[in-house]
Amino acid sequence: QCVAVCPTGALSENSNIADVLRAIADPSKTVVVQTAPAVRVGLGQDFGFSGRSVTGKMVTALRRLGFDYVFDTDFAADLTIMEEGTELLGRLNAAIGGDKGVKLPLMTSCCPGWVSFMEKHFPELADNLSTAKSPQQMFGAIAKNYFAQKLGIDRKDLVVVSVMPCVAKKAEAARPEFSRDGDPDVNISITTRELAHMIRFANMDFALLEEDDFDRPLGESTGAGVIFGATGGVIEAAVRTAYEVQTKKPLDRIDFTELRGMEGVRSATVDFDGTPVRIGIAHGLANARQLIREVVNGTSPYHAIEIMACPGGCIGGGGQPYHRGDIRLLQERTESLYAEDAHKPLRKSHENPYIQSLYRDFLGEPCGHLSHELLHTRYYNRKPVVKPCSTNTKK
Ligand code: SF4
Predict the structure, then answer these.
(1) Would you kindly state where each structural domain of the chain is located, as residue ranges?
(2) Is CATH 3.30.950.10 the classification given to domain 3-375?
(3) 376-379 contacts at long range (C-beta below 8 A, 24 or more positions apart)
């Protein structure tokens, strides 16, 4: 059994390759795969493309492995921005309107390492977290409740596999609130390393693979979805959409470089046409404690905070090929994501035409009734109850 250690120190990895192969071999199942943003800049490391984006070759490899549809978690990252951005604006506007009870700062919720840490150590912050599910889980909910319907099959006959840079995503997929009638929205979650093993087992010459594109409709994404894989990327993607929705004006720049970087704790203020929006960012849970302490004490100056558990964000995730603390490699992965973003024809989540048609044909509006049912979640107090030690009463 393949076992690896998560850098968050909380989890170990069990291989689910056999589960994936069984699903692909079952003729009664339609098997779809989604790949997280950071996977495309980690996967190539074992094949001579260290730190570089291998999106097109990865898609070809996944098709050759036998997946029926090759989709992109970046699509769900765009969807996350629609929901989380709407939630942020709702809270901001309520605060501007004088609502003293509104919970600010809004804290991001797409990192299960951070969510689990919050539930165990700071459950009092649960109401600060966005209720938006992570992109992995949003994808699963849309695949099972929308795409299965489009195919005319029962959701139980659709197997959703995710390829993640992350060991904590396996535990996230297994949470009971992300299942319906015993059928998980995401059936199997594997890591980037497991996908690299599968490609090698299948005897593919990765370097010689031609490049291909994701399937539609759940494979189309904007540059905003791509940068989710790097620290600061989630909040930058949110700002691109929230600014235009709030001000009803087009951004005069798309790159918010003040939100980027590798410092463990960063902050920036973005001007929303006269309204200063203060943003805090931390990667690595030790760094996050600094921002968390201020929120707990009621002294946080921020309106929104992004927290990612791993160094550099998901590009440095526990399921990626080992970076062994090599900051240069993490920077290369980050730069590759921003380069992919820069080359995308669309770079704001709300401009994704497939996201627009998903709302028009199925969901209704962001944070509407169906979105709340399918795309939002709640958090639990998992703080261990400390019992007093029993006194030795030996006589
Ligand atoms: Fe997973 Fe780490 Fe990314 Fe969090 S930062 S989602 S723990 S890979």
Answers:
(1) 3-375
(2) no
(3) 376/83, 376/131, 376/132, 376/133, 377/109, 377/131, 377/132, 377/133, 377/137, 377/177, 377/178, 378/126, 378/131, 378/177, 379/115, 379/118, 379/119, 379/123, 379/126, 379/129
First to last CA, the chain: 49
> pLDDT tens digit string along 82-96?
999 999 999 999 999
Pairing of strands 183-184, 179-180: antiparallel
Residue 177 among the catalytic residues: yes
Does 211 qualify as catalytic in the annotation? no
* pLDDT tens digit sequence for 32-64: 999 999 999 999 998 999 999 999 999 999 999
Protein residue whose Cα sits closest to atom 6 of ligand 1: 111
Which segments of 232-326 does DSSP mark as H helices, in order?
A: 233-247, 285-297
Distance CA 172, CA 170 (A): 5
Ligand 1 site residues, Cβ closer than 6 angstroms: 8, 111-113, 165-166, 168, 308-310, 313-314, 317
pLDDT at res. 1:
36
CA pair distance 181, 13, nearest whole angstrom: 26
Q: What is the ipTM of this complex?
A: 0.99
Q: What stretches in the chain show pLDDT beneath 70?
A: 1-13, 389-395
DSSP string covering 128-171, please? GB--BPPHHHHHHHHIIIIIHHHHT--GGGEEEEEEES-SHHHH
Question: Nearest residue CA, atom 3 of ligand 1?
Answer: 314
8 A C-beta contact, residue 71 and residue 139: yes
Separation of CA 361 and ligand 1 centre (Å): 32
